Amino acid sequence: MSRPGTDEAISRAHREEWARVVASLARRFGDLDIAEESAAEAFATAVERWPADGIPPNPGAWLTTTANRKAIDRLRRESRRDDKQKEAHAMYAVEAPQPAGAVDDDRLRLIFTCCHPALAMETRVALTLRLVGGLTVPEIARAFLVQESTMGQRITRAKAKIRAARIPYRVPPAADLPVRVSGVLTVLFLVFNEGYLASGPDSDPLRADLTAEAIRLARLTRALLPDDGEVAGLLALMLLTEARHGARVSPGGELVTLEEQDRGAWDAALIAEGHGIVRERLASGVAPGRFQILAAINAVHTSAREAGQTDWSQVVALYDQLVRLDPSPVVALNRAVAVAELDGPEVGLALVGRLQDALAGYHALHATRADLLRRLGRRDEARAAYGRAIELAGNRAEVTYLTRRRDELARRPGAESR
């Protein structure tokens, strides 16, 4: 096979099989360092051998077998240097059976391990993005706006803490799930977001592998906790967002905003499923949490046949509920966007202005401000705001969109499209 064909097969295998291989090794060897490094070595071996030997019929099985061999070779080497008896036992010991549960999935076990409450939330997210999402350390560092070396140290310390504290590689018992699940939901949401709009300039603008994996794990989590409203809300939010995937980037590689998307390209089945979950939660009579409100907001958007039919008063009312639960600047920014649609860009701009200090390094604030200034005819200020948004944005499809918007303002007045 040609080198480009092999490269594509390896890239696809990395997207589809990385988490499965790491999770399988973590379960067998009980060490995240061994799991990650052996998986990486297996993919490096594929880069060397597949161009010559051909792509195996089952790439995932080939990678898992190769990674297991790499791990065993490593343990053999270490057993000669270190405590031979101890390492040999670890290498050949029969894995203790796990108690039966509602779900038996290696990757879900890995999520719960990465999301142990002993770890700080930002560390849980970073570790999950690395081990489950397969993101590189530079990609994760960009998402967190920190230096690559800093992020590498965080991930290394997190794995060491899991090993030293003997944090078990399993889905917790039913009694512990409610306490643990909120952290898992937050991490799954952030993994989904990285796929929805990838933060790195060198990655695909949309990472369908990450959004699909986050949805799959959210479904499994719902099977564990079928009556948990926030688990259901997160799943509905993901489904309603993923439904728009096919319309979010133009053939030319430019981000397409919600109001400009071809709604006929949305996935009707995902929308129907998401709407069904939202209605089910509303019928429960239980006060909604953050994810349920976000799902309801997306249900309003996906109910409108055209952008002009969006019920912005309902969207603002939902954001009013959300801001009471989550008074973060990002939620306030999203509410300001909705208010601008309902009450006009000048009102929205005043709300955005209150957030400039808190969100000075957040590209979406500057993009929102630029759009509102453009709508008010304040072209020079809008161009400057677009420029700042472009400097801060990492997603190349978004940069392409923002650049076009900025450049339109250099033309004669009225030449730009809304």
Order of helices and strands: HHHHHHHHHHHHHHHHHHH
Q: What is the makeup of the main sheet?
A: none
CATH topology of one domain: Serine Threonine Protein Phosphatase 5, Tetratricopeptide repeat
Would you identify the CATH H-level superfamily of one domain? Tetratricopeptide repeat domain
Form type: globular
- The end-to-end distance, rounded to whole angstroms, is 47 Å
Task: Tell me the helix content.
Answer: 55-70%
How many helix segments?
Answer: 19
Indicate the proportion of strand residues.
under 5%
Corresponding CATH architecture of one domain: Alpha Horseshoe
Question: Could you name the ranges where pLDDT drops below 50 across 5 or more consecutive residues?
Answer: 84-102
CATH class of one domain: Mainly Alpha
SS-derived structural category:
mainly alpha
The radius of gyration computed from the alpha-carbon positions, rounded to a whole number of angstroms, is: 23 Å
| Number of beta strands | 0
Mean pLDDT over the full residue set? 88
Family: Belongs to the sigma-70 factor family. ECF subfamily.
InterPro entries: DUF6596 (IPR046531), RNA_pol_sigma70_r2 (IPR007627), RNA_pol_sigma70_r4_t2 (IPR013249), RNA_pol_sigma_r2 (IPR013325), RNA_pol_sigma_r3/r4-like (IPR013324), TPR-like_helical_dom_sf (IPR011990), WH-like_DNA-bd_sf (IPR036388)
Protein name: Sigma factor-like helix-turn-helix DNA-binding protein
Keywords: Sigma factor, Transcription, Transcription regulation
Task: Give a brief outline of the structure.
By secondary structure, the chain is mostly helical. The chain is built from 19 helices and no strands. About 5% of the residues have low confidence.
